[in-house]
Design brief:
The chain has eleven helices and no strands. By secondary structure, it is mainly alpha-helical.
Length: 241
């Protein structure tokens, strides 16, 4: 009887955790927020709300786009993630710029975007316009560029057509930078049906100067004071009446 009782107690004891009640297991500790370096966790918490849970399908430009990742190098993505884009909806995420992420976490986001979604073979042989404009575009020339490449979707004056909405709406232009406009013209928004710089006119990709000029035309439509209408209507630069 004593031997049986001893054996039973041994079995029970072996299945019990004899540590202090309520003490968490060593592998259950939650890491400090500034120690998280998982791309999945960082992207979901900081990027997915605007750029989509899988890098596409959000309100902002898709990051899961080989053409965009061929256009923007790591230094560009790192700068935008770290410092944001002042005056737009893109905030700064680096602690050095007032955000919450460490330099190591920023690097984890940049590396994750590049290694998961870049496809160099998909854009081989594509001659991309430069990411940044080499010189300021000309808004008057941009009016003709817009008519040739953009008006079939966005309407003759940019205020919307049968295939796409207004692209000169003041509220929209007040929220985007000239660089964002340029990037969108080059890369397009394929998830929304907007072609890249090669697809507006079949067989006739936009030249770097044409990209700069149409961006200058779009920027000229931006309200002088965000949210404040002009006292009287005025014609858009290069508007055809």
């Amino acid at each position: 009887m004593r031997a049986g009782l001893a054996a039973a107690l041994t079995v029970v004891a072996s299945g019990c955790d004899i540590r202090a009640p309520g003490r968490p297991a060593p592998d259950s500790q939650v890491p400090r927020p500034d120690k998280v370096t998982s791309f999945d966790m960082l992207y979901a918490a900081n990027c997915a709300g605007c750029h989509g849970p899988e890098g596409k399908g959000g309100a902002a430009m898709a990051l899961r786009d080989p053409l965009y990742l061929a256009l923007a190098d790591d230094a560009t993505i790192r700068r935008v993630v770290s410092q944001g884009v002042p005056g737009t909806a893109m905030p700064a995420f680096a602690q050095s710029a007032g955000g919450m992420l460490t330099d190591e976490q920023v690097e984890a986001i940049v590396a994750g975007i590049r290694t998961r979604w870049a496809k160099p073979n998909a854009v081989q042989g594509v001659e991309l316009p430069p990411y940044a404009a080499r010189a300021a575009g000309d808004a008057k020339r941009g009016s003709s560029v817009y008519a040739a490449y953009c008006s079939s979707c966005h309407g003759a004056n940019g205020r919307g057509g049968g295939r796409a909405s207004s692209i000169v709406e003041g509220s929209f232009l007040a929220l985007v930078s000239n660089q964002s406009l340029r990037t969108t013209v080059i890369v397009g928004r394929p998830e929304l049906g907007a072609p890249d710089f090669r697809g507006n006119v079949p067989g006739k990709p936009m030249s770097p100067d044409e990209v700069s000029d149409v961006v200058a035309w779009l920027a000229a439509q931006r309200p002088e004071v965000a949210g404040q209408p002009y006292p009287a209507p005025r014609a858009a630069v290069g508007e055809r009446r």
